[in-house]
Amino acid sequence: MSNKKSHKSINIPCDILFCILSRLRAKSLLRFRSVSKPWNAIISDKGFKKAQCDQSKELGREKLLLQIYYSDKFEFINLENPQFAIEKQQFPLKGFERANVLCSYDGLVLLKKRRAYKTFVLWNPSTRQCQTLECPYLSSYTCSRSCGLCYDSTADDYKVILIYTSFYTVCSVNSNDWKKKENLHMLEQRVPSLCGISTEGCVFWSLNRAPDPFVSTTSKVIYFDVKSDELKEFPVPNFVGDNDLFQLATLKGSLCLYGGKINNDIYCKDLEVDMWIMKQDGWKWLMKLRDVPAEFCESYFVKYSRPLHYTRNGKIVFQGPKIARLYIA
Asked: Which spans of this chain does the record mark as coiled coil (predicted)?
């Protein structure tokens, strides 16, 4: 009689396996890719990456990636407990030391190699995968004025938008296909904010006479329509008054404005910042922030602080005016 034990394989339907794996952390998924070819195919699929990212948000696992000042080293911060660093990671591509981080969206980061004006890299820090993007329309010393990154759900594709002085380009990441658009009449000598705000398949920028990020009654707001690949004008909200200054942001997956009536007195003790959020039926007032650091005047706070995350207990995590400073208000 043979003493060998028979081994039975367990076949799990693909849809159930997809659901189970999407609930795991990225660090575990990196290991499980080596279990089998079918598992590797599921985990490497773009649709799975989107589902896993959405699931992480639902489970409260959102992390912030911070670049350690003037280096190619990064660290993950738990947004529910921002005083704790989760892990550190080094950007994997050689020759991209101290690369400029341009923007990020949905767990992806767009970087540009220093002094390399045509070469960009889309990086997924969770899976440690990179894709190099080479813009064919640029001369040697052409620098983008603004950038953006968004997801096209109809094509299951990410798009990179780069705005220059007289044109803008759109890159479809799946095919690395670039389009050049020259209809920039809406700029009218205005300067778009450096980094676009990505939410719900659009990217938003404020336009000003000077290179600052404020939205006021004299500003314009433009957005990239992912369906038409066109830049369009977005109306400035009615609640923005003559003496108000706001910045664009994203919270809870929606477009947000924060700011209000600005008191430029540097000795001002009582800073008040209003936050508005865009819903399907229009702008809704979200909250008034009073417990913010009073060491800066309001205009400095609004200009150099950026809301990053709306926590489960109703607090907002900000990136502060000082480099790599996080605080909760």
From this structure: none
